Amino acid sequence: MDIATLKRLEKLNQLALTEEQEKAFLEFFSKKEKEAEALSEIDTENVERMVHVMPIMTVVREDKEIKNFTRDELQQSAPETTDGYWQVPRLVE
Amino acid sequence: MYITKNGVKTDKAIVLDDMILTKDMPTTAGSRMLEGYNSLFNATVVDKLTDAGYEIAGKANVGEFAIDVMGETSHFGAVKDDEGNLSLGSAEILKKEKVKAAIQLDVNGAPRRASAVSRLVFVKPTYGTVSRYGTVPVACSGETVGVMAKSANDCLEVLEVISGYDAKDGTSLPADMIEEAGEIKRVAVVTAFDGSIDDGVKADIDAFVKTLEAKGVAVEKIDGAGLLASKTAWNILMSAELCNNVSRYDGVKYGYRTSDYTTIDELYTNSRTEAFGDLLKTAILYGSETLSDENYMKVYDKALRVRRVTVDYFDSLFENYDAVLMPATSKKAYGEADVKDMAYEENLYTAPASITGLPAVVAEGVQLVGKVFSEKALLELVKLCKEGE
Fold first, then answer.
1. Closest chain A residue to B357 measured between Cα atoms?
2. B164: left (phi over 0), alpha (psi -120 to 50) or beta
3. Cβ separation of B252 and A79 shorter than 8 Å?
4. DSSP of B89-158, one letter per residue?
């Protein structure tokens, strides 16, 4: 991985690493890349991917109204609210 | 008896690790991101315990989002035992207080490692048998709510209370899908890990093997090299799932918000950058890259196929054995320096059960992994081994 790819990943994940952290991550990634390459030695040609370890597929609950939280309850842990809305900086000028 | 802060004497006190949501106490996941966060509801396991007359004594510190070796990445500081070695909050409370058990979310094996070094018992039940509703989501396809206690008996008692179908958890297994496994009579001892564990751990395995043999259990050594790929595959899946799960923390709806922003992008980026620790940032970036166009098939999809290969490998072992004995750790104790950059390495021993969803029990410093729905049989085996001591 080069630094440009890492910068793109940081932006994508809304993170800003220091130079030291970037260096450490590139070392970490290089090691993990080699380990992932080693997995290619395992023959998975006719093996199906396994997303769920148990035979449970998409579970849909009954289409019935259930008790929900109020706006005030949902906003009790919000860092900033105004008039019942989550407050963020202006998005459009 | 444990005396609660309200002065109630109880022999049914329970500690929860800080990955379990509670209405009456904050839940932090060991992260600055959730410092001071209060959930609107209890996890299902909490309601099940209180409905059955258990008292929640408090919450215990965990590493940030429970992916580290043993709590060393907690924003609130690492927990150490009396010798100055790393421990988990739950383990230290169990050793020092008269609590019955600790409920823990096993994401990347930390509770199993803590139980091994603290000589406690931990059961990670079969995936889907205990509700995960109301736990902080990290690596949902493998993480499991488990029980840590001083004895297999206490684990059995509490596991019985928290197990069972929960309609609120989409991965919860209905009762008619569960068929408990029978008694454990044949155990395979994996030697593939021998080169990476210290003499103390080897001695624990040898001692446990002797006890098993003395109790009439047939024990046989196997190579078990088919389990070695689990670590890499689990690291990929865990990171990919974590990356998505923690994308919800953006400094807007709840959690930490930076004071250093003028634009929405700065709000998101500075909040996440300031609140997440180094290991979490590493896991997010790694997980994100495994899901990229370039790596999705080569890395992420491959890991999903290796998961099935590992399940099939275990199945082949279970044709001849009822359980597999392996280490839970490479060391008998961890100093802080021992665990630097080790979260993606030390899970070599815990990843096989994490990636397959199989039950695992840690006791006497060793780990037993069994067939699906064999968690009670594994605990009964541990009880048998302790009889007459």
1. A53
2. left
3. yes
4. HHHHHHHHS--SEEEEEESSSHHHHHHHHHT-EEEEPPTTSB--TTB--SSTTT-EEEEEESSHHHHHHH
C-alpha span between B360 and B113 (Å, rounded) = 12
pLDDT tens readout for residues B273-292: 999 999 999 999 999 999 99
Q: How many CB pairs under 8 A join A and B?
A: 155
pLDDT tier, A57 (very low <50, low <70, confident <90, very high otherwise): low
Distance from CA of B85 to the nearest CA of A (A): 26
- Contact at CB, A16 and B265, closer than 8 angstroms: no
Average pLDDT of A4-23?
97
Q: Across the interface, do A40 and B302 touch by the CB < 8 Å criterion? A: yes
Q: What structural domains does chain B harbor?
A: 2-228+307-386 (3.90.1300.10)
**Domain extents for chain A?**
3-39
A12-40: b or e for each residue (b if 16 or more CB lie within 10 Å)?
Answer: ebbbbbeeebbebbeebbeebeebbeebe
Residues of chain A with Cβ-Cβ distance to B23 below 8 Å are none
> Tokens 């080169």 map to which residue?
B195
Closest CA to A53 of B44, B144, B350, B246: B144
- Confidence at residue B51, expressed as pLDDT on a 0 to 100 scale: 97
Burial class (CB in 10 A: 0-12, 13-18, 19+), B248: exposed
For B142-182, what is each residue's pLDDT tens digit?
Answer: 999 999 999 999 999 999 999 999 999 989 999 999 999 99
Asked if residue B141 has pLDDT above 90, the reply is yes
Q: Among candidates B380, B307, B332, which has minimal Cα distance to B86?
A: B332
Q: Is A6's CB within 8 Å of B285's CB?
A: yes
B-chain residue closest to A62, CA distance: B167
Query: Is-above-0.90 flag for pTM?
Result: yes
Q: Give the residue from B181, B69, B89, B188 showing the smallest Cα distance to B129.
A: B181
**Residue B317 · residue B353 · CB < 8 Å:** no
- Using only C-alpha atoms, chain B has a radius of gyration, in whole angstroms, of 20
Residues of A in contact with B289 (CB under 8 A): 1, 5, 9, 29
Which uninterrupted H or E stretch holds B286? helix B278-290
Question: Given A28, A29, A50, which is nearest B308 (Cβ)?
Answer: A50
Could you tell me which chain A residue has the CA closest to the CA of B178? A54
CA-nearest of B125, B196, B136, B50 to B353 is: B125
| Nearest in space to B309 (alpha carbons), one of A32, A41, A33 | A41
